[in-house]
Amino acid sequence: MSNLYTAHAAATGGRAGTVRSDDGRLNLTLSVPAGMGGDDGPGTNPEQLFAAGYAACFLGALGVIARRQKLDLDPASTVSAQVGLRREGLSFALDVELQGHFPGLSPEQAQALMHAAHEVCPYSVATRGNVDVRLTVR
Questions:
Q1: Which of 19, 36, 75, 92 is the most exposed place for a label (fewest CB within 10 A)?
Q2: In this structure, are residues 97 and 81 in contact, taking their beta carbons and an 8 Å threshold?
Q3: Mean pLDDT of successive 10-residue segments in the chain (138 residues)?
Q4: Which residue segment(s) compose the domain that 76 sits in?
Q5: Residue 71: which of 34, 9, 24, 116 has the closest Cα?
Q6: Report field, pTM of the whole predicted structure over 0.85
Q7: How many domains does the chain have?
Q8: Is 131 in the same domain as 84?
């Protein structure tokens, strides 16, 4: 099986370093949040990057599902991701909440759409059974 697309990125310096994609489109400084004992500097962090990627990917999956179901998804629709990092024994674990806002859809339609997208989104598939993911509608 071949990939439709493969992203390439490299990190230098760990959580207080940098990340850069091979094409240079992504080139970011990283900072450790104060809640993790860091200086809360101006850079982003892996959890923010994961949240941004998951939210964008999930909204894309929602669009696919909406088209399949012949639903009109308002262009103002949004998905927000909250990604938490917690200690779990000697290791660390992620915790995710995806919040959807879908103007024009009933809460029941929106929740059903969120659950259907959760079945096909690559981030959801990758984290299934390993990361606690909660789906909510605002």
A1: 75
A2: yes
A3: 95 97 98 95 97 98 96 95 95 97 95 97 97 96
A4: 46-137
A5: 116
A6: yes
A7: 2
A8: yes
